[in-house]
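Q: I'm a student working through a structural biology exercise. My instructor gave each of us a protein and asked us to get a predicted structure, then write a short paragraph describing it. Mine is TraR/DksA family transcriptional regulator. I'm not confident about reading structure output yet, so if you can add a plain explanation after the tokens, that would really help. Here is the sequence I was given:
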Amino acid sequence: MHQLNSSDKSELQRILNERRTALHEAIRDRLHGRDDSEQRAIFNHFADGDSPAEATLLENLDVAVLEHEFRELRAVDAALKRLDFGAAGICAECGGPIAVERLRAEPTALTCIHCQQRIEEAARQR
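A: Happy to help. First, here is the predicted structure for TraR/DksA family transcriptional regulator. I'll explain a few features afterward.
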């Protein structure tokens, strides 16, 4: 079984914790509404006679972004748990190692690059 060294684990933990903090802040800001300048810009945009449907579109976009941020936050939390349990860096598909370079670029990665390429190729063929 592949084990990350302590330096790699520390680096990944730092990256994941920084991302987790950024996501928490983004979610909090989104849930507490836009800042005043953004609200004024939207108000001015619609005061100029644009469609109310555009306001609905903006709300739907906010919800979609919020859902994406929550999914990413769950992935970050899961990656931190894998680090804690010594399972980080192990491909969920083949059980082989996930390259440290891949984890640095995508610290929530569940699969090695070869398995990920196979998964993406299979998805394209559907």
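A: Here are two points you could use in your paragraph. Residues 6-125 form a domain with the Four Helix Bundle (Hemerythrin (Met), subunit A) fold (CATH 1.20.120.910). DSSP finds five helices and no strands in the chain. It's a good idea to check both against the output above yourself.
Q: Great, thank you!
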